[in-house]
TrEMBL record:
Gene Ontology molecular function terms on file: acyl-CoA oxidase activity; ATP binding; FAD binding
Chief localization: other
Domain Acyl-CoA oxidase C-terminal: 474-651
Residue ranges occupied by any Acyl-CoA oxidase C-alpha1 domain in the UniProt entry: 279-440
Protein's name in the database: Acyl-coenzyme A oxidase
Pfam families for this protein: ACOX (PF01756), ACOX_C_alpha1 (PF22924), Acyl-CoA_ox_N (PF14749)
Binding-site positions, FAD: T143, G182
Organism lineage string: Eukaryota, Metazoa, Ecdysozoa, Nematoda, Chromadorea
Amino acid sequence: MSENPDLTNERASGTFETNAMAAVIYGSEKFAQRRREITEAISKIPEFQDSHPLVFMSREEKISEACRKLAVLSNYWNSLIDTSDEEEALHLYREVLGLEGHPLALHETMFIPSLIAQASDEQQEKWLGRAQRREIIGCYAQTEMGHGTNLRALETTATFDISTREFILNSPTITSLKWWPGALGKSANWSIVIANLIIKEHNYGPHPFMVQLRDEKSHEPLPGITVGDIGPKMAFNGADNGFLGFKNYRIPRENMLMRHSKVTSDGSYIKPPHAKIGYSSMVKVRSRMAMDQGLFLASALVIAVRYSAVRRQGYLEDKSREVKVLDYQTQQHRLFPSIARAYAFIFCGFETIRLYDQLLIDVQNGNTSGMADLHALTSGLKSVVTYQTGEGIEQARMACGGHGYSMASYISEIYGVAIGGCTYEGENMVMLLQLARYLVKSIEMIQNGKSRELGPMVAYLAENESEIDLNLGPNEYLKVFEYAARNQTWRATEKFQKLRNSGMSNEEAWNQASVELTRASRLHTRLYIMSTFINHVGSIVDQKVKGVLIDLLNVHVTYEVMDIGIYVQGLLSSNQMDLIRNQLYVSLETIRPNAVSLVDSFQISDMQLRSVLGRRDGNVYENLFKWAKSSPLNKTDVLPSVTQYLKPMMEKSKL
Ligand SMILES: CC/C=C\C/C=C\C/C=C\C/C=C\CC/C=C/C(=O)SCCNC(=O)CCNC(=O)[C@H](O)C(C)(C)COP(=O)(O)OP(=O)(O)OC[C@H]1O[C@@H](n2cnc3c(N)ncnc32)[C@H](O)[C@@H]1OP(=O)(O)O
Ligand SMILES: Cc1cc2nc3c(=O)[nH]c(=O)nc-3n(C[C@H](O)[C@H](O)[C@H](O)COP(=O)(O)OP(=O)(O)OC[C@H]3O[C@@H](n4cnc5c(N)ncnc54)[C@H](O)[C@@H]3O)c2cc1C
């Protein structure tokens, strides 16, 4: 069937090449090209297609479907991608497995990275190759039923038995059961388990252990292990998040991951070079989250923007033809700032992935000085991007009206998966407060006359306000954001200090200032996102692409500043606020002809999108009808439940 002419016209009105834009989004022409090649190659392999729409499947069917595809994938793996390239691998996973989770998700995102960061060279020799070849399937078991956030209160123990040189793992209470780890329930046969290291009755706190859970031949749980699935979730139902308990389960001493902390055979403990070095797997995932969430948001926007360009409802001036809903200013205001955020998140994502890779090298060379900075940055970023992604996806759903609420749009699934990110890898409020600790310390340095020692990301906290001339462009908006973040950070810190100086304990003062502190963290992070966006656009060579991204940046800076209006009242007059508001409306109009091309540029395939509304060809209505007819409820005209219950009820009522 040919493309819907409304979309053809939209594509014709674009002022740039989508391939050139994709090269900017994905960091290089080479990777953008590789993505397309991988997508193209997969589309020719029929076994990778869903056997029927995932949304009609039960959990068991979804998991089985994911396993089927993984088995097929293992035959093609080496021919489809450069296996040493993590980004290619993740693209392949996204295309084939989608976003609902699968048995290898945690293997790739946490198990292998934990081995790389935490296992000694000998341990890597033993396990890493096996994991990379997928001879074993691993997961990351840290969270317990009773504790996820407060890692110091985890209850699982690994007690060193000096006589046998083994660790004995135990789950002493119900609340100590590991609870949530992805792929633990039914798929993984090995796990990195975080347990309290106990030697001669001294608790050294949480440490990572490599633990075999299931027999490698029969896949049956090993004696001493209780393991299973935790049941259906809001989303991610293609994944078997699990529970795990230990009863006097013994593992060799060599199974404690010993790159950094060590236990010798006589039971001596060797400290790591940094107390939180064992948390690196979390930092790794957090450093990926801006990118992953940017892509979730992008997916919802591809659907909503394409659909809005073919959906006609109501009239503007021309009463002879209904208007595309994308032409309404309210629709543009609902969608375009989110397009800008999706771009901004992806740009930040590439930056934080690069920073993590550098940190990993530094730490392997004994330099842990960058850990606190990256922890603070990624803590704030994961919190802000997950929250704003959730907001943006929900707006995208509403922008699709009634059909957005149907699973045919697939937006609800994207939403459910994306907002999981507000919780996993550290609950958002908790992580904002981690960043706040860093910000408060920065203010204390300024108060102690050490402004010069501040890192580049917080140097603005020591600056004075300057005059703002909004006609000068994005950098002036950045100054507005700096003002807001600086003011709020000082205000929150001073509140905390005042409470503490009044005699309150440090903890209670912190608690009573915590809402204000989280606000400071959000503003600081949004400033970082904006400045990364500005820097990125500044570095673009292709002038057509750059021109459109400047337009998109204008949407971003004006929208973001309007959104934080309450924090800039002392800086901007109401006339200046009106000016910004009007600039935003103008920016929405400017970007309108490029809206479809901007979302096309994400190059997210129909196969991955799984959305009837977001189809690239825009043939929504005929496919919506086809999709509804394929619903299992429509297999028969009369359901057994009607025959069994409703008919007798109606018959009875007639009497
Ligand atoms: C193949 C896949 C295909 C596609 C992928 C696509 C998309 C991806 C999609 C889905 C991913 C799927 C599933 C998600 C998997 C989820 C996994 C998990 O959730 S794992 C569990 C995560 N758990 C957490 O995040 C727990 C949160 N809690 C903590 O991190 C800590 O407890 C907390 C930091 C809150 C406090 O720690 P605690 O030990 O109590 O600290 P303490 O108060 O003693 O000290 C604080 C002190 O330490 C500093 N610090 C803390 N953490 C770090 C760190 N990581 N690095 C450096 N420093 C750290 C902190 O700043 C503070 O310092 P100061 O005292 O202020 O100096
Ligand atoms: C989809 C998904 C996948 C997951 N995958 C894994 C996995 O693979 N492996 C794994 O180990 N875990 C996994 N988890 C668990 C996840 O990491 C935890 O649920 C998460 O870290 C939050 O911890 P919690 O559940 O204990 O929340 P809680 O800490 O109980 O949060 C409840 C409330 O208390 C508040 N709160 C808690 N502490 C503080 C504080 N100090 N200050 C202020 N407020 C506070 C929070 O902000 C929140 O509002 C997964 C979770 C989900 C949803």
